[in-house]
Amino acid sequence: MLTLNYDTLTVTAATQIQKDLRDDIVIQARNFPVNIIAGADISFNKFSTTVYAGIILIRFPELIPIGYSLIKKEVLFPYVPGYLAFREASALMGAWEQLPLKPDLLVVDGHGIAHPRGMGIAAHFGVLAKTPAVGCAKKVLCGKYEEPSSEKGSSTPLIFKNEVVGAALRAKNAVKPVFVSPGYGMDVPGTVEIITQCVGRYRLPEPTRLAHNIVNRFRLGEVPEGYTEV
DNA sequence: GCGACAG
DNA sequence: ATCTTGTCGC
């Protein structure tokens, strides 16, 4: 069992952890089938140290939910841009270990290697859980990109330090793009491909959207903690 | 020193 | 991230 606790960490210490974990990142073409994909997200009340984490399992490519793991946890590390994992990964790990079966690929709300030190939450979590992961964010953290054409499915490379670290992906016509990047066990083209296949009728790909949805309902007391099969 | 800054 | 009313467009 892997319990993460970043409560007493300083940002300086967190930076060192990111640099250490960076050596364990594996970026490569996907070499496994995806039958179950998962979405991970966090929800919390403003100014509260209680975070609600959730992971939803989804059959792929049908995009039908099969179950979700929800857990509540106290977290002291604040939100600091570039250090999201130190606030959210601990609770996510709780939800992860509560899963009766693991997904083939995890989609995390946030960035993968499209990060100042190449260690966004999707990479951070993927390395620690030793599981394939990609990041899907609503906003850029670092890097530059050309606006993708307005038609759904178009994408442009996200470049940071002269390196392609991800992509801006137009999931739907005439809506803002989402930013995807590999986290662990995936590469940029493979990440764009699979996320594209996860788009339903909304801007956010289903794993991210459904995870956000269920964890929010959990925070509001509409669904119970633990694992629920659907 | 000045902006930018995942959730 | 969360809260919130109204407005625009398919």
UniProtKB/TrEMBL annotation:
Which transformation does this protein catalyse, written as a reaction?
Answer: Endonucleolytic cleavage at apurinic or apyrimidinic sites to products with a 5'-phosphate
What are the names of the required cofactors?
Mg(2+)
Q: Which UniProt keywords apply?
A: Cytoplasm, DNA damage, DNA repair, Endonuclease, Hydrolase, Magnesium, Metal-binding, Nuclease
For the keyword DNA damage, the answer is yes
Q: What class of enzyme is it?
A: hydrolase
GO molecular function annotations of the record: deoxyribonuclease V activity; magnesium ion binding; RNA endonuclease activity producing 5'-phosphomonoesters, hydrolytic mechanism; single-stranded RNA binding
Please, which domain of life does this record's source organism belong to?
Answer: Bacteria
- List the GO cellular component terms: cytoplasm
Task: Please classify the protein's predominant subcellular localization into one broad category.
Answer: cytoplasm
Compartments annotated for it: namely: Cytoplasm
Q: Which Pfam families match?
A: Endonuclease_5
Q: Which residues bind Mg(2+)?
A: D41, D109
InterPro entries given for it? Endonuclease-V
The function of this protein is: DNA repair enzyme involved in the repair of deaminated bases. Selectively cleaves double-stranded DNA at the second phosphodiester bond 3' to a deoxyinosine leaving behind the intact lesion on the nicked DNA.
Protein name, UniProt field:
Endonuclease V
Source organism of this protein record: Chitinophaga ginsengisoli
Taxonomic classification, please?
Answer: Bacteria, Pseudomonadati, Bacteroidota, Chitinophagia, Chitinophagales
Q: Its encoding gene is what?
A: nfi
